[in-house]
Amino acid sequence: MSGVQVHRHCAAAWASTRQDEPDHPVLDPVGLLQLIDALEPARPASHESEHEPDSDLARVERKLDTLLQLVSLLGAADSRQPTRVPLQLSPADIQWSAADLAGPRRDDDQLLIWLNPLSPVPLRLSGRYVNEDPEIRRFQLSFNDSDFESAWARLLFRWHRREIARSR
């Protein structure tokens, strides 16, 4: 899965790790990734995979859980998202054009990305900002939780497979 790269337009911003109160409600990152995945449209029936058994009822239950989570977050969330920028997402890092998003103010800032416009909260990513190229910016991801790292890689892999299925 390490070679998987997904291109998405996402709202993105930087946030200080030293704030006492986060700007956005905090949601378990693994739960947020599952919520984002549930918001994706269903796979075409012709591309069902044996590796991902999924009944229609289970998918409906996940979508219902997702809607309930979204409703609970809407009251606390600020619906204003930053401008969407093209991002290249991979399990190890995130890249973007220097013209689209400036670097962080401080080395320990976290990258906030709204992976889906319907998500009322951003995904908070920790890592190291790398400025190797004057035109390309890169954020090397670091995960303190192996479940979060696995969920991130699985989501990107699913998106990659869906992009391939749509292109056929």
Structural features:
about 170 residues, alpha+beta, 7-stranded antiparallel beta sheet, 7 strands, globular, PilZ_atypical
What is the strand and helix layout of this fold?
Elements: E1 6-15, H1 29-39, H2 56-74, E2 84-89, E3 93-97, E4 110-114, E5 123-125, E6 127-130, E7 136-141, H3 146-167
Antiparallel strand pairs: 1-2, 1-4, 2-3, 3-7, 4-5, 6-7
Give me a quick take on this structure:
InterPro entries: PilZ_atypical. This protein is an alpha+beta fold.
Average of the residue pLDDT scores: 79
Mind describing the biggest β-sheet? 7 strands, antiparallel
Tell me the radius of gyration: 16 Å
Helix content: 25-40%
Given the structure, what is the number of helices? 3
What's the β-strand tally?
A: 7
Domain tally: 1
Description:
With 168 residues, the protein is α+β, with helices and mostly antiparallel strands. It has one domain (6-18, 27-41, 55-167). The chain is 31% helix and 23% strand. The protein has helices spanning 29-39, 56-74, 146-167, and strands at residues 6-15, 84-89, 93-97, 110-114, 123-125, 127-130, 136-141. A 7-stranded antiparallel sheet has the order 5-4-1-2-3-7-6. A hairpin with an 8-residue loop joins strand 4 and strand 5. The mean pLDDT is 79. Pfam families: tPilZ. Residues 42-168 form the Cyclic di-GMP receptor atypical PilZ domain. This is Cyclic di-GMP receptor atypical PilZ domain-containing protein. InterPro entries: PilZ_atypical (IPR031800).
